[in-house]
Amino acid sequence: MKALVKRHPQVGLWMEDVPMPDVGVNDVLIRVDRTGICGTDVHIYSWDEWAQKTIPVPMVVGHEFVGEIVEVGSNVIDFRIGDLVSGEGHVVCGRCRNCLAGRRHLCAHTMGVGVNRQGAFAEYVALPMTNVWVHDPNIDRDVASVFDPLGNAVHTALSFPLIGEDVLITGAGPIGCMATAVAQYAGARYVVTTDVNPWRLALAKKMGATRVVDVRTESLRGVMDELDMKEGFDVGLEMSGNADAFRSMLETMCHGGKVAMLGIPAKGMAIDWNLVVFNMLNIKGIYGREMYETWYKMTVMVQGGLDVNSVITHRYDCDDFESGFKTMMSGESGKVILKW
Ligand code: NAD
Ligand code: ZN
What we know:
Number of domains: 2
CATH architecture of the largest domain: Alpha-Beta Complex
Cofactor: Zn(2+)
Distance between the termini: 11 Å
CATH superfamily of the largest domain: Medium-chain alcohol dehydrogenases, catalytic domain
CATH topology of the largest domain: Quinone Oxidoreductase, Chain A, domain 1
Pathway: Amino-acid degradation; L-threonine degradation via oxydo-reductase pathway; glycine from L-threonine: step 1/2
Bound molecules: nicotinamide-adenine-dinucleotide, zinc ion
Function: Catalyzes the NAD(+)-dependent oxidation of L-threonine to 2-amino-3-ketobutyrate.
Main location: cytoplasm
Oligomer: single chain
Family: Belongs to the zinc-containing alcohol dehydrogenase family.
CATH class of the largest domain: Alpha Beta
Largest sheet: 7 strands, mixed
């Protein structure tokens, strides 16, 4: 089968012919239809320090996908050939304390699809049945293909109650833009989304931000005055991984404000801990999606009218993956989809 492979420990990816994946008794085999390019895939393409430390070569990359089941293992009874599915990209151990307690998103031994085990940028991918989510057959397939990052946005945005709250989202990347739409859908009063990239701020505006802020030219304080926000933001969603963005969030939260942190800082970052202590902030780290409460919530929100279609800005054939990665790296895109 055709697959996009990290073949050599250097910049790039290679479209190759590789053997079909093995299908174990507890696995399903999926014919991949579309895939989304994630920031993680870009790190692997660019072969940065993180990728060099993390990715065993060769590796079929990719984890955001939608496709149809074409084969099931002998233990699999509740998935059928033809089901439209995506995969949860974290394969958990099932045996650690958190897994046994049903808190699988907190597993101590998570393996990443397309990171630590063979991925989904391929004609076929095999996954344990415990990692398969069956879609409403009427769902838009492009949206279904990005359920993994939509899940990051939903997991983060729904970490704290949002009805009537003023929400600050730092970072208008694809996930920050989707979180903007989710926060509006979930009943926030104001959603203020920041970035340093005008193209992405325009996308956040299109996806429902009350106000977008280019922090290079505008102050958050000024925007708070404009909106007559007297005490600061109630909820902060950090989606940039940028230290300045995080610091400015801590400075503009209300007393007792709640912060969910999804963005991954490239290196250690110092903060003013007095802001956390004296403003009595509550900071929560987010990794991945809750299995499977997040998947349930995003499914019913999309069925109920949550519209994230605008985040999908580019579509390419998988053979033209170089254009897809180039578009992602340009910063002038939302989600980029490859058709298999
Ligand atoms: P992205 O890199 O496309 O978006 C980040 C955005 O932050 C960019 O648009 C960038 O211009 C913006 N930014 C940079 N400096 C800023 C500043 N000072 N203020 C405001 N914005 C600034 O990433 P994404 O795919 O949307 O993902 C968002 C973040 O979440 C990334 O850090 C990513 O690594 C991380 N992530 C975490 C998980 C997890 O499970 N914790 C999963 C997926 C992604
Ligand atoms: Zn576990």
